[in-house]
């Protein structure tokens, strides 16, 4: 291909295309920040990616066109098929998986460059090594995160002195990395040892982290992959990679912080302490659980003025979101004001619940964030809680000894009535007893989320 | 190789850009946005292709091959899931059946 164009023209074409691609990425991300233009945003970014990829084939000295196309085809097809098929509930782990692949690719670039038998400047070596380290951690760590959320890895592996062991592994990695930098060229066995240690570190760092904290970790690895890509972009002299990598790195860091804050955790706490599985509960509950029948609950909602629906991940697990939307439409037709109140960490990552509701057809203007809606609970006749637990637990406001104390919650306890749809009497994801369930104005509607939503619809239709 | 200081300027400006672009995003879009930024670093594909192009030994070629497969997975997977999610967001004015 490069014979058609002179080397100079090809080089110029590559530079222009990369520039355009970088601009399209930023424009695309900007458009993705509003639900109205978001769809166009990803398409523009996609155009940038295709242009950049095609033009890379023009690189002087590029070889193996057939094999390279095959490699792109293999990776692309696998991702396309899995990406098309994945259920919306499983989205977080797929994002982790694709992100890990990017980290692995950055590590592969570092490996090839380090193995390459040429003298390099110290800056080059340092950045190649750092990018390799971060990329490898992101790769193996994301695979563990995927395994955990997919249910392939069931337990968290924790032992005393874990942070000590991890620091030790990191120290070995840094040592091997320094040997590579000082040696200026990569001796193959040192290079392989270095990457092996980096990959192990990703595994041991991620294994102790509980499932509930995984979204924060996925977001962090997303930012890290961005950073690794930027470092390798410098190594390869590719400005577009630096820009794309750093933009993602900084955006990802911000997203990670927002998530950690919404979950009432600091990032250090997530990474080094390992809560997120189960915690002992010591707050006392008074009162009793008061069950209600679907017919009574239906009447309560049908004659309400305002109903706020608080969905949680349990609703998605029960595949109840379509029924819930049907219920919502029924109430809207009767003139009831209905709004969805979404906690920032409802679902498995921030914004996940919005995706799940959107899939069911709920328009986004009926969906409200915690800070937009929280003042409205006092004027709501019914708060319908379906599949949510910790995010409506008032102990987060009242009990300083609770692990979730200080976490922003939805004030469902302030509604005139609360109806909780729940499978059984167990505690929530975090294992903390929910005080809301025992309040005088709370009624429990026991059963499967989908079946109960259907029963409510039936009850209202029969009025 | 890029001049070190030019690279530093690029890094600084890109970091502010990333921060500013994301800072005003409503939380309803956080998941698609994480996925979208995941897609953007799929640009690692062009780097993986370039690195493979410079590979001399069988070991380097093998690693190059793996790198390109992984990078293509990142780019394509990131695009597909982001597009699928964003496609579903509708306001009540544009109701479709």
Helix content of chain B: over 70%
User: So what's the oligomer here?
Assistant: heterodimer
Distance between the termini of chain A: 73 Å
Number of helices of chain B: 4
Shape of chain B: flat
Distance between the termini of chain B: 54 Å
Label the structural class of chain B: mainly alpha
Q: Overall pLDDT of chain A, averaged?
A: 87
Percent range of helical residues of chain A: 55-70%
What is the residue-mean pLDDT of chain B, rounded to a whole number? 88
Rounded Rg of chain A: 26 Å
In total, how many beta strands of chain A? 6
Please indicate the percent range of residues of chain A in DSSP E strands (runs of 2 or more).
Answer: 5-15%
Name the largest protein-protein interface in this structure: A-B, 122 and 84 residues
Order of helices and strands of chain A: HHHHHHHHHHHEHHEHEHEHEEH
Total strands of chain B: the figure is: 0
Stretches with pLDDT under 50, minimum 5 residues of chain B: none
Report on the biggest sheet of chain B. none
Q: Please tell me the total number of domains of chain B.
A: 1
Structural class of chain A: alpha/beta
Keywords for this entry:
heterodimer; A: 463 residues; alpha/beta; elongated; B: 97 residues; mainly alpha; 4 helices; 73% helix
Write the layout of secondary structure elements.
The complex is a heterodimer of chains A (463) and B (97).
Chain A: H1 7-31, H2 38-56, H3 65-85, H4 91-115, H5 122-149, H6 162-183, H7 188-206, H8 214-236, H9 239-262, H10 267-273, H11 294-302, E1 306-311, H12 313-317, H13 321-333, E2 337-342, H14 352-360, E3 367-369, H15 370-373, E4 382-386, H16 395-398, E5 417-422, E6 442-446, H17 449-461
Parallel strand pairs in A: 1-2, 1-4, 2-3, 4-5, 5-6
Helix pairs in contact in A: 1-2, 1-9, 4-5, 4-7, 4-8, 5-6, 5-7, 5-8, 6-7, 8-9, 11-17, 13-17
Chain B: H1 4-23, H2 30-40, H3 44-53, H4 58-87
């Amino acid at each position: 291909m490069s014979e058609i164009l002179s080397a100079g023209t090809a080089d110029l074409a590559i530079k222009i295309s990369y520039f355009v691609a970088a601009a399209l990425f930023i424009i695309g991300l900007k458009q993705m920040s509003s639900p109205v233009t978001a769809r166009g945003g990803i398409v523009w970014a996609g155009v940038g990616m295709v242009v950049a990829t095609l033009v890379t084939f023009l690189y002087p000295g590029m070889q193996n066109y057939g094999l390279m196309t095959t490699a792109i085809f293999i990776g692309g097809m696998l991702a396309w098929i899995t990406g098309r098929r994945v259920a919306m509930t499983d989205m977080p782990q797929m994002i982790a998986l694709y992100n890990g692949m990017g980290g692995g690719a950055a590590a592969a670039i570092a490996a090839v460059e380090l193995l390459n038998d040429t003298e390099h400047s110290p800056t080059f070596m340092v950045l190649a090594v750092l990018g390799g380290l971060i990329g490898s951690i992101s790769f193996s760590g994301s695979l563990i995160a995927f395994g955990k959320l997919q249910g392939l890895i069931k337990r968290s592996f924790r032992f005393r002195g874990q942070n000590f062991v991890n620091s030790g592994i990191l120290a070995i990695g840094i040592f091997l990395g320094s040997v590579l930098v000082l040696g200026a060229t990569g001796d193959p066995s040192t290079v392989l040892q270095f990457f092996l240690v980096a990959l192990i570190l990703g595994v041991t760092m991620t294994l102790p982290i509980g499932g509930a904290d995984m979204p924060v970790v996925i977001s962090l690895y997303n930012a890290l992959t961005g950073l690794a890509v930027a470092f390798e972009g410098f190594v390869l002299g590719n400005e577009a990679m630096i820009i794309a990598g750093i933009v993602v790195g900084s955006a990802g860091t911000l997203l990670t912080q927002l998530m950690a804050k919404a979950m009432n955790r600091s990032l250090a706490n997530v990474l080094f302490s390992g809560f997120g599985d189960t915690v002992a509960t010591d707050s006392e509950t008074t009162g009793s659980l008061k069950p209600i029948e679907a017919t009574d609950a239906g009447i309560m909602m049908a004659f309400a003025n305002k109903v706020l629906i608080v969905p949680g991940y349990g609703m998605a697990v029960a595949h109840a979101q379509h029924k819930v939307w049907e219920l919502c439409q029924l109430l809207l037709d009767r003139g009831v004001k209905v709004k969805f109140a979404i906690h920032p960490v409802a679902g498995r990552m921030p914004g996940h619940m919005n995706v799940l509701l959107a899939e069911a057809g709920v328009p986004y203007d009926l969906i409200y964030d915690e800070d937009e809606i929280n003042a409205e609970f006092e004027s709501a006749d019914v708060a319908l809680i379906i599949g949510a637990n910790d995010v409506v637990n008032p102990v987060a406001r009242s009990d300083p000894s609770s692990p979730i104390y200080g976490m922003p919650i939805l004030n469902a306890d302030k509604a005139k009535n609360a109806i909780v749809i729940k499978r059984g009497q167990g505690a929530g994801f975090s294992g903390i007893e929910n005080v809301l369930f025992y309040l005088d104005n709370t009624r429990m509607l026991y059963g499967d989320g989908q079946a109960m939503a259907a029963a409510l619809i039936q009850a209202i239709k029969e009025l | 190789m890029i001049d070190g200081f030019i690279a530093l300027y690029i890094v600084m400006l890109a970091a502010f850009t990333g921060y500013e672009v994301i800072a005003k995003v409503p939380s309803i879009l956080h998941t698609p946005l994480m996925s979208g930024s995941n897609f953007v670093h799929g640009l690692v594909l062009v780097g993986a292709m370039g690195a493979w192009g410079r590979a001399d030994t069988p070991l380097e070629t093998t690693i190059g091959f793996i790198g390109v497969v992984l990078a293509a997975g990142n780019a394509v997977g990131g695009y597909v899931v982001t597009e699928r999610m964003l496609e579903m967001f509708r306001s009540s004015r544009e109701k479709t059946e």
